[in-house]
Amino acid sequence: MSLAFKLDYLGTAFHGWQRQPGIPTVQAALEDAFSALTGQHVPFIGCGRTDAGVHARSYIAAARTACLIPLAKLPLAMNAKLPQDISIREAYLVDDQFHPVFSCNTKEYTYTIHNGRVRNPFYKDRALFVPAELNYPAMCTCAQEFLGKHDFSAMRTLGSNVKTTVREIYAVELSRQDALIHIRIRANGFLYNMARTMAGTLLYAGLGKLMPGDISAILTEKNRSAAGPTLEAHGLCMTGVWYSEPYAVLSTAQDQF
Amino acid sequence: MSLAFKLDYLGTAFHGWQRQPGIPTVQAALEDAFSALTGQHVPFIGCGRTDAGVHARSYIAAARTACLIPLAKLPLAMNAKLPQDISIREAYLVDDQFHPVFSCNTKEYTYTIHNGRVRNPFYKDRALFVPAELNYPAMCTCAQEFLGKHDFSAMRTLGSNVKTTVREIYAVELSRQDALIHIRIRANGFLYNMARTMAGTLLYAGLGKLMPGDISAILTEKNRSAAGPTLEAHGLCMTGVWYSEPYAVLSTAQDQF
Prior knowledge:
Structural class of chain A: alpha+beta
Strand content of chain A: 25-35%
Oligomer: homodimer
Number of strands of chain A: 10
CATH superfamily of the largest domain in chain A: Pseudouridine synthase I, catalytic domain, C-terminal subdomain
Radius of gyration of chain A: 19 Å
Order of helices and strands of chain A: EHEEHEEEHEEEHHE
Number of helices of chain A: 5
Number of domains of chain A: 2
Largest interface: A-B, 32 and 32 residues
Largest sheet of chain A: 10 strands, mixed
């Protein structure tokens, strides 16, 4: 059996998920905490390599090891060793076949825009500040053009090797809450910088720089230069990852008493 | 005429409102930004001396000076010189009789408790984490005993000179939102640490350490040791300050387009 963990992290203080020598990363923090707690030096495998400044809620990481600490006590024991920016919410036993990336069937990213007149310090490092009036209905309309299976070559940054640039988008849901606009994207997978570029393209739709029909054309033509910009990392949060049975339980969230 | 500003700040990076030599404070940041912008070195007077780590929304500060920059452009011009943790939302012209403290008739503080099983990194520095089950209805019931005019000697920390320890509480409103409990207190004024001690006393009610009737008795007997603890600064936010006419306009808030 292996261990799996569900965790939240505020990405601001980290240089992303992946361990790199000499700088703080989420993976290193987890491996170091587990080592301090159990004496075992084992690699943690994450459900995605988030970039520097990107946040996560209900992130799943796994380690192929046993642990003498009871599962129910493991989250709090790990949290005592982890920085305040990371919190393990649940620990699970999974069989060795489980892999946080390859067992996953759906992932969700949420990009948050603070669309106000004046910057708000409470959104610092958590939302992209856009002090221009946005056409929110136009953003909602254009977002639907992303739905379905497409080649997303126009919505990625080169730099990673992938077998295919085709991904299927299950949902793009926009919501407004005070001056915040949340763009929630669920897909079977994301290319490098794809969520941030999709958000930037919807921002262009909100600014009137793209019209209905343009996103479909950009996807078909694989025209990266006609798409919107890759928005800054700090507005992005990985907000969910779903697994096929028997791992579906990993995606439940319970925080309240 | 004088200038008045409405601002928000995230208190985490500051050693409170009041200027102190060699350490970052909100007052110093405002005075330095105004000086960098206009060349004028003038003192800024705040509506309250918040402690290190305490946040504020719709805080009012004033400076007895004129300014050649148009009022409508002053907030953005100041924000360009201020750290990201502070944001000026509005600037006003007020007559020289206006004083952020003495012209004020009502102030509001909100204390936020994260009442969950596991800590949440997104609430770090913004809410007090209490991982014990709380009796929320009991907290709501006991809160009503604070209403009205009382001697609040039992709910303060010594260390400031005040003419009277009598204050009038206009409202204590509790609300729940996911795992957060907000305790919103409106009064004609607050003694040193009074909001944090009232919140600590309501936390004791939630933990079953105080019963209905106890708060009234503590106030009457001026019994500081029977009250709850002074909760940590990072859960506290000054959330409003109201002025008598003709300054009532200072308390309006508009952020959305």
